[in-house]
Design brief:
alpha+beta; 7-stranded antiparallel sheet; about 30% strand; 7 helices; globular; about 45% helix
Length: about 180
């Protein structure tokens, strides 16, 4: 009886901690912060985003969830806080395929794999003035992901995504955008 209670309590604590350090929790915790741009792309718009670049088109085909967030990182304390949050989020459940550190500046590409397919891609950038993350969930070719990370193609995708959604007032298009 005591062992069962301890087991259930441990399981509850572990699942609570895991959900705190997830993309969903980070997105929800920061989407209403001052000077934040947050984009969560609805399924019907994913095909439109394939026009950003050939690289983006090759990813869009199997994407189920696509999110982008840009946030201020104007103080050393804020930069350190954001870097720590991202490190905690990707810590043991993601594999880093690319990382470039320059003091507190960060450029990190992390993935989650299942067998021979990449299921999630998280790209985090912080230049100590602005930070951003770009998140994909779907089925992706690991070779293509590594190639895009090495060529820094993911940085171009974030810029293209924001440019695509700057048509916020276009009739018939109602993406979930929070500023």
């Amino acid at each position: 009886m005591i062992n069962r209670t301890l087991f259930l309590l441990t399981l509850f604590i572990i699942s609570s901690c895991g959900s705190y350090n997830s993309i969903d929790s980070f997105y929800e915790a920061h989407k209403n912060d001052d000077q934040v741009t947050a984009v969560r792309v609805p399924q019907f718009m994913l095909s439109m985003l394939g026009n950003i670049s050939p690289e983006m088109n090759s990813l869009i085909g199997s994407t189920r969830d696509l999110r982008y967030m840009q946030f201020p990182s104007a103080t050393p304390e804020r930069t350190k806080f954001l870097n720590t949050q991202m490190n905690n989020m990707t810590g043991s459940s993601f594999i880093e395929v690319y990382r470039k550190n320059d003091d507190q500046k960060r450029n990190v590409v992390s993935i989650r794999e299942k067998r021979d397919a990449v299921k999630e891609i998280l790209i985090y950038n912080n230049n100590t003035t602005r930070g951003s993350f770009l998140y994909f969930n779907g089925d992706f070719d690991p070779v293509k992901v590594r190639q895009m990370a090495q060529n820094e193609d993911f940085q171009k995708i974030g810029d293209g995504l924001i440019n695509q959604f700057n048509m916020k007032g276009t009739p018939g298009i109602n993406p979930e955008i929070e500023n």
